[in-house]
Write a sequence for this structure.
């Protein structure tokens, strides 16, 4: 593990190594819903889609600025897309529920229609193309998750969720799909050519799932939510373990992996680079008690004890390190607990406070100010150290991230 300068306890660390802002892509008339970096290191390009109904392909000119080589208008707002770098197949989903497949030419100057899929009844929120299976997976506001064969164009199956499907991920090797929804659940399904089997529901978020990322190498599913939390689910480990990463102060909107680093972006304008080689622990279950586990004073709903002890009822709190149910007085200390994923100070009890050393408080992440709320992010393919971010202001930005990963 690389030893770098680590922050002092308690304060979020703004690294001196910054993502370098390269340029802004400005041209869409309405919200940009997604931007994907494509091309080689010396010849990068960007595909973007927007509520203004256009797909734009931006090529980098000699000046370093990006100019559209294609501006293609669709019948409705373009809400989601996926791109297969090797075959240059582009899938664009619309607000009206359809998905269109294009071939992008070698010189990035032309897109050719390949096929259309009448997939959903409402806005498509997320799509994923799997070349290995030739499946196109999609999640929609109509509460359906579906998958189509990209060889025949036929629908292979559909799963109805109890709330909007917001995002989808897929492990092609085991044919497991992960469907995130508006209620904060992630449904795991085993897919076949004709049907699905529900495997499990991953419950842990208290807000809508915004982004999912499948780490094929480690069999980890990583989810980012409107509840500001990232959860890392160990799917392949078989032990059902999960841990949280708490470092954002607003909704988590994008995730990406680069080597041993996890990058996350948020509406709080921050890029967090998490060291995933560090050992982290799952957060403890929170105890539910009628009295403080330390001083035994009753909580406010414990009316009998309140009368017996002639005490005023107290509010129940929880120590983030041991999970005990405690009154405010017995849990008045605050500390970051990076091993448990808490990068900012959280409530801990007096006993745990004695056991947390400065070493335990050392941050396992670095924080970078992007100066603007981020609604989406993608990294360049093939290890090229470029990042594209989508802002809430219709702009896209390109960053050199060589020094932060
Ligand atoms: Zn107490
Ligand atoms: Zn404790």
């Amino acid at each position: 593990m690389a030893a770098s300068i680590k922050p002092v306890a308690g304060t979020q660390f703004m690294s001196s190594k910054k993502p370098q802002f390269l340029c802004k892509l400005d041209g869409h008339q309405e919200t940009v819903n997604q931007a994907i970096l494509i091309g080689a290191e010396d010849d990068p390009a960007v595909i973007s889609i927007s509520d203004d109904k256009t797909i734009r392909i931006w090529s980098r000119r000699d000046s370093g600025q990006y100019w559209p080589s294609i501006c293609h208008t669709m019948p409705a707002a373009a809400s989601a897309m996926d791109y297969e770098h090797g075959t240059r197949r582009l899938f664009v989903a619309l607000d009206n529920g359809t998905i269109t497949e294009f071939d992008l030419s070698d010189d990035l100057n032309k897109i050719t229609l390949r096929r259309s899929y009448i997939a959903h009844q409402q806005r498509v929120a997320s799509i994923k193309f799997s070349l290995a299976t030739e499946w196109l997976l999609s999640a929609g506001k109509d509460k359906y998750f579906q998958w189509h064969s990209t060889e025949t164009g036929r629908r292979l199956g559909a799963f109805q969720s109890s709330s909007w499907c917001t995002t989808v991920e897929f492990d092609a090797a085991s044919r497991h799909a992960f469907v995130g929804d508006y209620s904060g659940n992630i449904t795991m399904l085993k897919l076949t050519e004709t049907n699905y089997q529900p495997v499990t529901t991953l419950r842990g978020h208290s807000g809508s799932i915004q982004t999912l990322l499948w780490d094929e190498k480690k069999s980890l599913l990583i989810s980012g939510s409107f509840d500001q939390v990232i959860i890392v689910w160990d799917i392949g480990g078989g032990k059902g373990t999960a841990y949280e990463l708490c470092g954002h102060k607003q909704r988590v909107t994008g995730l990406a992996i680069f080597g041993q680093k996890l990058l996350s972006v948020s509406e709080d304008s921050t890029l967090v680079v998490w060291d995933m080689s560090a050992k982290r622990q799952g957060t403890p279950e929170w105890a539910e008690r009628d009295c403080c586990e330390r001083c035994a004073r009753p909580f406010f709903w414990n009316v009998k004890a309140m009368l017996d002890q002639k005490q005023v009822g107290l509010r129940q709190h929880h120590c983030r390190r041991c999970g005990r149910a405690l009154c405010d007085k017995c849990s008045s200390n605050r500390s970051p607990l990076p091993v448990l994923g808490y990068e900012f100070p959280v409530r801990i009890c007096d006993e745990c406070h004695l056991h947390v050393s400065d070493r335990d408080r050392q941050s396992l992440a670095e924080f970078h100010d992007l100066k603007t709320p981020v609604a989406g992010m993608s990294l360049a393919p093939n290890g090229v150290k470029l990042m594209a971010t989508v802002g809430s202001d219709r702009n896209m930005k390109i960053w050199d991230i060589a020094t932060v990963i």
